[in-house]
């Protein structure tokens, strides 16, 4: 079983509250979302693993069980063309849970007219594979967000 932890601090709101139909409908996969604190912060890896996809606004880490976890920093933030985001790792790097991946400023994202809400998604997972999903309440970086049963 994989425990997926919060890549940043804020308030858990659940995927259905994400202002994007693809995430809200769990079309990418099940999980939860965090409405982040509005201050410059660092998004960290939610699991131990390898960075298989890395963009200024999003990253995927695949753990040793083959579980891919997507952290998406804000909604429609790809339109910011990387402005305001700083990468701390490279695609292909092995990372540890809690390791810095991307620095960003949720308040600046909001000021640019984008939602800073951050989906944290279990890619290609069946909804029933997830348990103990945190969909409300305050979370700190590193708090457990959900458990993912090994396939």
From TrEMBL:
Pfam families from the UniProt entry: PTS_EIIA_1
PROSITE patterns: PTS_EIIA_TYPE_1
GO cellular component, one term: cytoplasm
Main location: cytoplasm
Keywords, comma-separated and alphabetical: Kinase, Phosphotransferase system, Sugar transport, Transferase, Transport
Lineage top rank: taxon: Bacteria
Domain PTS EIIA type-1: 20-124
One Gene Ontology term from the biological process aspect of the record: phosphoenolpyruvate-dependent sugar phosphotransferase system
Residue spans crossing the bilayer: none
Single GO molecular function: kinase activity
Ranges in coiled-coil conformation: none
Protein location: Cytoplasm
InterPro entries noted in UniProt: Dup_hybrid_motif, PTS_EIIA_1_perm, PTS_EIIA_component
Entry protein name: PTS glucose transporter subunit IIA
Lineage summary: Bacteria, Bacillati, Actinomycetota, Actinomycetes, Kitasatosporales
């Amino acid at each position: 079983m994989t425990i997926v932890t919060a890549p940043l601090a804020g308030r858990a709101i659940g995927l259905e509250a994400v202002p994007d139909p693809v995430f809200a409908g769990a079309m990418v996969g099940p999980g939860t979302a965090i409405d982040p604190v509005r201050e410059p912060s660092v998004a960290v890896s939610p699991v131990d693993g390898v960075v298989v996809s890395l963009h200024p606004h999003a990253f995927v880490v695949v753990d040793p069980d083959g579980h891919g976890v997507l952290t998406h920093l804000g909604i429609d933030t790809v339109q910011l063309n990387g402005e305001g985001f700083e990468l701390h790792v490279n695609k292909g790097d092995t990372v540890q849970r809690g390791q810095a991946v991307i620095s960003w400023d949720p308040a600046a994202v909001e000021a640019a007219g984008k939602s800073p809400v951050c989906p944290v998604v279990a890619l290609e997972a069946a909804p029933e594979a997830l348990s103990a999903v945190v969909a409300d309440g305050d979370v700190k970086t590193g708090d457990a967000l959900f458990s993912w049963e090994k396939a």
